[in-house]
Structure formats: structure tokens, C-alpha cells
Amino acid sequence: xxxxxxxxxxxxxxxxxxxxxxxxxxxxxxxxxxxxxxxxxxxxxxxxxxxxxxxxxxxxxxxxxxxxxxxxxxxxxxxxxxxxxxxxxxxxxxxxxxxxxxxxxxxxxxxxxxxxxxxxxxxxxxxxxxxxxxxxxxxxxxxxxxxxxxxxxxxxxxxxxxxxxxxxxxxxxxxxxxxxxxxxxxxxxxxxxxxxxxxxxxxxxxxxxxxxxxxxxxxxxxxxxxxxxxxxxxxxxxxxxxxxxxxxxxxxxxxxxxxxxxxxxxxxxxxxxxxxxxxxxxxxxxxxxxxxxxxxxxxxxxxxxxxxxxxxxxxxxxxxxxxxxxxxxxxxxxxxxxxxxxxxxxxxxxxxxxxxxxxxxxxxxxxxxxxxxxxxxxxxxxxxxxxxxxxxxxxxxxxxxxxxxxxxxxxxxxxxxxxxxxxxxxxxxxxxxxxxxxxxxxxxxxxxxxxxxxxxxxxxxxxxxxxxxxxxxxxxxxxxxxxxxxxxxxxxxxxxxxxxxxxxxxxxxxxxxxxxxxxxxxxxxxxxxxxxxxxxxxxxxxxxxxxxxxxxxxxxxxxxxxxxxxxxxxxxxxxxxxxxxxxxxxxxxxxxxxxxxxxxxxxxxxxxxxxxxxxxx
Length: 617
Prior knowledge:
Blueprint: E1 2-6, E2 15-19, E3 29-39, H1 41-47, E4 66-74, E5 86-90, E6 99-103, E7 107-109, H2 116-122, H3 125-136, E8 143-147, H4 154-163, E9 167-171, H5 175-183, E10 188-190, E11 199-204, H6 208-215, E12 218-226, H7 239-244, E13 248-250, H8 259-274, E14 282-287, H9 291-300, E15 306-310, E16 312-318, E17 328-333, E18 341-351, H10 353-360, E19 371-372, E20 376-384, E21 396-400, E22 409-413, E23 417-419, H11 426-430, H12 433-446, E24 453-457, H13 462-473, E25 477-481, H14 487-492, E26 496-498, H15 504-507, E27 514-517, H16 524-531, E28 537-539, H17 543-549, E29 552-553, H18 562-575, E30 582-587, H19 591-600, E31 606-610
Parallel strand pairs: 8-9, 8-11, 9-10, 11-12, 12-13, 14-15, 24-25, 24-27, 25-26, 27-28, 28-29, 30-31
Antiparallel strand pairs: 1-2, 3-4, 3-6, 3-15, 4-5, 5-7, 16-17, 16-19, 18-20, 18-22, 18-31, 20-21, 21-23
Helix pairs in contact: 3-4, 3-8, 10-19, 12-13, 12-18
């Protein structure tokens, strides 16, 4: 198995990838197939050589004390029912590895519905946050200051304190960290030097001079919790002064647990997370072998929330044809890019009708094995294959993949991606590739332009909306069929809307020259009659109708190069001349619901799945 070893004390560069024998579970132990590793600030401090008087680690050693994954094997005296279960665990070390040994007494089952990434991110800070908030005994209206509020532990503390009814001031360095604290409930977020007023409770996760200044703001009879030392030392607080002011002092002991207490608090933390009441922010997720990059991000002090290392990816897959219930979110090996490929850490993926049609068995034979879903995405390149020179790790991109976009990581051909500009959000970018390429291709076949009237069947869908706006930008007049409730929106785009269904020919506002069928509603025969020429009718949804009536069926493969498509489309998007609404965004674990929504239809624009695989930009 692969491990990450601290080869010597020093900077992030001392972390090395090394092979090691697969571990064997001893009495009272299990072996975990690690999916996600928690990266703590303490890991980076110990790697540098700090704290040797308290921590006995000597290089070479494998760092890492928190992991999540599946139990591979159980040692003597361990209930065999643990094998195969999703778990999180606290380790004495050795977590930066593909497999890790854990004592069963610190093993916690991960609830259904909670992703392993969230479990790993909370396995250590979740118990600490609950313990601190319990000890603070907050009353509604209490004035609370959290230092280090944009960090891994600070953010869940902000959320829990706010949920208890406290007025929370979040002290953090930088606008991004302050914004994250506000999103989790802080009444006020500010830089350390901007904090004003007195506080009933101070939760100090920084120590040093910041902690000392925070202590001065505790009111008479208040409480000061000093539990963090990323500055290198605890807050220098005079116990005698605290006693004179009646300030209760609580130190590191509040976040140090015996195994039984850890297991109780960790189980409670994961249950609260599964219920949506506890969370932190995963600000960086990188492959295990890139642990040095995570440590460097911690050293820069710019990271919001947690950093985690990924041994496995997550992907939505199905093994047979059927309804949406055949989809499952599974842990899979991180895909490795081959020649001409890159790996994308997926932030968002578009959902198209072809996705559920493939899943349902309308196209092609049943899958021979696990099959992914989704053909368009946006995210950040996190690995490049041989011979790829165009792209570099860290570049934001969007584009097409053969299948498997609904995942935390996906492989893409280097030529099927486009650089994502900063002004285009990931979710909007993920909605564009299929719709824009299809619309561009169809309009090219039709020759839509000045002096032409184009009728689009199904104009309120993704392809229809882009095609309508692109055709108008090229000078064409556009008529589109849609339900009555979409008409006002379509008029705002400059489209002449008509209701689809029987009698359409009588409702049209004059003759039409060209027709694009994006609906599949058996309208090809009518369209040929309207134009008088089957060559002026293109359908992307009805190949059988095209064959019967001599119209053009345009399939998506091989398609038009995206660089060509977006050379025209992106400037129009930025100018507001092409807009593709995102109808609804689903989390990755609700991919089945996204398929159901797509299959039901009647939504305006595109459906998007948020995969939340994050790299710093």
C-alpha cells in the first residue's frame, strides 16, 4: 500500500510517498480501507519538529490521526459484523495511508446519508466542538467570541454557538474566512484587530498574542477556553488575574478524550452532521500523494475550514437498467489519467435527458459492470496524463466527458475542456457544454441567420434556450413552443412563445423557414410541412421521425470542438445575450432525485448536481 511519510523534520517537502506492507489487525483492532484522511494543523506543526517534548514522533513516521473508510478485516476479539461497514476512527498515527489499523474502541459507524468526506472532516473537530459548547453552557443572548473562526474547529463552534441562541462574533483572518463564519451563523465577523466589546465566553483556537488579547475581552464572571495553539503557544493568561476577575479558565483538557468519551462524542457529532445540524467546511480535498500541498495550504493560513486527503473518489453508478433507484453513490479508486487525459476535481455536473434514458435502458445494452452517469462538468484539474501540455494542475475548466461526471473526480479528454473564466460560476458552467454544443451544431446545420424565422420545439429546455438566444444573436427571428407558464420568461429573451399541442399550426405568428426539434414530441412531420423542405428541419430528439420524413437527425457524437463553440458563446454569456437558468441544484448524494426531476420534465433550464470536490484557486 502507499503511505505518506515524514522523512525528516522540516517543511511540507519532507512528506514523501512510500510503499509499505498491508497492515494486519491485532487483538481488538480492525484494518480500515481508508477513503478520506483528516489533515490537522497539529500534523503540520509536528512535521516541522515542534512539540517534541510532548509528542514522541521521530522520523520516519506516517502522520494522521483521523480517517474514514470501510472496515476490511477484524482482529481477534472484534465483532466480525464490523467488516464492510463505513466507519470513522481516531488513530494514534498512521492515517496518511491507503490502509490503517484502528482500535475498535475508537471506531464510530458513519450514518447512512453522511458522506465519508464529511465524516473524516468531523471525526476530530466534531467531538471537540461539542465538548467545548457543552462546557460553555451557553444561554440565549450570550455574547461569544470565537477566534480562529474560519478554521476547521472554529466554523462548527460558530454554528453550534449560534444554534444555542448566542450572539457570535467570529474573529478570523481574511474575507473568505469571515464570510464562511457568517454563513454558519455568526452575527458579526471581523479581523482580530477589529474585535470590540466584552464577551461572556471566549473560545480561543489561536493562542499566542491573539489569545491574550481575546482574554482581555472576557467580562467579569465569564469563561475563557484556550484549546488551540496554531500560533505555536497557548494564550499567556495569568491565572491569578483570571481569579480576581472571576473568569473561569478551561484549557486543552476539554478537547482531550479517553476512548469511551471520544466514541460517545464522535457518534453524536456524526449523527448531528447526518441530521444537518453540525458541519464544517472542506476547503481543500487533494489526493493522498499530494499531502504536501495540503500542508502548504495550512502554512499559508488562507485555507477556509478543513483540508482532507483523498484515497478514494465517490461516483454515482448503476449496475443494471431501471428507474432512478438503481443509482448509488459509491467509493471508487481515484481515476488515473492516461495519455491525452486529465483528471478533474468536479465541482458541478449537468444533468441531461440522455442520462436517465441510458440508465433506463432506452439506449444500448445493459451495463457489463458498474456504469457512471453524467456527460458534462465543471471543476479544477488535479492531475494530468502523459503528453498533456495544454493544461496544468489547478486550472478551472468545464466541458464534456464520455460518462461519469456525477462524481467527485472524473477523467476527461484534454481536448474536451475549456478554461472556465473567473466570472462564470461552476454551476452555470456545468450547465452549458451539452446545451451550447448541441445548439451551435444544430443552428449550423440549419443556417439560421438574418431574415430567417426559426421555430424551436421545446424552447424552454436547455438546448432550446441556448439555441433561441444564439439564433437571435445571429439575427434570426425565433418562435418557440412551451407551456403557458413559460411565456413571460421567453418574451423577456425576445422569443415569440406559442403553446405546444394540437392546433399549433394555427397559433404560429406567421410562416417559419427553419425548425429545430428539441422536444421529441412527434413533431417532425408537422415541421416538414411547415417549412416545405425536410432539409430545413433538424431534430436532436426523434431519430425515427427524421428517418420517416427525410429530416436531419443530429447526434451528439463526435460533435463540434468546444473551443469553437465557446469562442462564440462565452462572449455572449458574459454580455448577458445568452442565459441558461439553473432550475435546481442537487447534492451528489441526491443524484437519483435529479434523474427523477429530469425524467418528469417541465423545468425551465438545466438541472445541476453539486459534487463539492474542492481545490484552492
